[in-house]
Specification:
The chain is mainly β. The chain has no helices and eleven strands.
Length: 122
């Protein structure tokens, strides 16, 4: 029953910024690690950044220094602030999360959002 919904994508000029949001909803007890991944047609989905429930972050080399991942645990929401965007950042960005349902007996959830398109033009 847990769902992730991404928002904030769009078309921007190179050098611009976007802030992506990922809102989790449903019968959630807790969310542990969350992350942003991106995929371009013809390429495999790749990790952009991850963040643990305690705030430990990891970034792909391509994202370091330009992107910032954060989360608001009270709101079950994760963000990706993207600055100094480049055309090569163009992709569908997907939210990923794992955690526990409120309902006892269910296994941990491992889910993906539907994706949000980011297009950076030169």
């Amino acid at each position: 029953q847990v769902q992730l919904v991404e928002s904030g994508g769009g078309l921007v000029l190179a050098g611009g910024s976007l802030r992506l949001s990922c809102a989790a909803s449903g019968s959630i007890f807790s969310i542990d690690e969350m992350g942003w991944y991106r995929q371009t047609p013809g390429k495999q989905r790749e990790l952009v950044a991850t963040i643990t429930g305690r705030g430990t972050t990891r970034y792909a080399d391509s994202a370091k220094g330009r992107f910032t991942i954060s989360r608001d645990n009270a709101a079950n929401t994760m963000y990706l602030q993207m600055n100094t965007l480049k055309p090569e950042d163009t992709a569908v960005y997907y939210c990923h999360a794992d955690g526990l349902h409120r309902r006892p007996g269910l296994p941990r959830f491992v889910i993906w959002g539907q994706g949000t398109q980011v297009t950076v033009s030169s």
